[in-house]
Amino acid sequence: MHSLWDDAAAPRSSAPLALRAYTSRLIGGNSDLVLYGGGNTSFKTADTLYVKGTGVDLGAVGEEHFTALDLERLRAMLDDARISDAELMRGVDQCKHFPEAAKPSIETLLHAALPYTHVEHAHADAVLAVANVAGCENRCAEVFGDLAPVVPYRHSGAALARVCKQVFEDQASTRTIGLILAFHGVVAFGNSAHESYENLLCLVNRAEDWLQGRGAWQLPVSGVATTGMDKAESLREAASAIAGFPLTLHVASTPQTIAYARRHDLAKISQQGPPTPQHAVFTKRLPLIDGDIDAYARRYRSYLQQTLGSTPHELDIAPRIALDPAFGLCAFGVNEHYAGVAAEIYRHDITIISRASAHGCYHSASAEDIARAELEYGGFEQRVRAIQHNRSMDT
User: Fold this and answer.
1) Rounded to an integer, what distance in angstroms lies between the CA atom of residue 24 and that of residue 194?
2) 189 and 233: one domain?
3) What whole-number distance in Å separates Cα of residue 327 and Cα of residue 343?
4) Per the domain annotation, does 3 fall within a domain?
5) Of the candidates 318, 236, 334, 323, which has an alpha carbon nearest to the alpha carbon of residue 284?
6) What is the pTM of this model?
7) Terminus-to-terminus CA distance in the chain, angstroms?
8) CATH number of residue 124's parent domain
9) Residues with Cβ < 8 Å from 313, sequence gap 6 or more?
10) Residue 9 lies in a domain
11) 115 and 36: one domain?
């Protein structure tokens, strides 16, 4: 992956936040680093943390999209073991310098915990393809060494920030430029926007080079399908009936998706879960692979009940991704945009899972962790449907 830093294009202003926004856009504009709604960056002064606001597209972020918070207060709360994770997360908003400012990133505490002026968090495909295997820690030690110690999986927010702080304090050396977050992504840092950005690329390129050297880079391909569209539409209708509202169809028949749907081990590798739990918000934990949507719905209801104790009203049990040798990949969404988002995310999942499976045994986070992410970040489809309904009423 080549650096996109351009001395001529970089802001000529001496304001560090302008450069922070510039490198954030370089990261956010690359889907191999950041997918829909993902990624966050920050900049620190002696007493203030500026972190990207929640919901802001990292590829289009400007200086105005960073929320300023009291850095000393954030760190004091993080160091206080008496404060629970839930209380800690509730306290983040109270650290904003301006109450009306945007809600800061869920990873605000992680950014506060690290002793560098610039921090970036991305979900780089190549890093996940290295790390998402059995024996993650040993594999990452081989590839990254002390450049980036491994952080065991924790849910986003206070729990992740606390374990990142502990791992950094226990394992970081003078060579350390980042952290590998198991089943989540990568963090990089530095003392300038340019340095931190280049450190992120250093870790990603290390992963890419290692995968290429192990013959785990090239993706299998197959002929593009010319049939199966009727089948995809039938699946959309069945999925809509299960969901209880009409879903939109997006078909992605490419040489890579066809080859993946035709893998002899599809039933094993596709049913582990996504590379990072956040993807399940758009794709569900598992794709449909046998065309039996009723059976899928029964299994999904059972999964939610076993992990969450119920089937929350925010989550329906219809699939959002279907794989079939006839058409490759199709995705379902509450509208055309979100069907496309689900398809794009799962195409990246195919890349990650295929490369991980080429050098090891692909693993995802636990079913419980993925269900928790689905519940915490889910429910957006209900909000989108409400907005669409209101617009139709207005017209």
Assistant:
1) 10
2) no
3) 13
4) no
5) 318
6) 0.94
7) 47
8) 3.40.225.10
9) none
10) no
11) yes
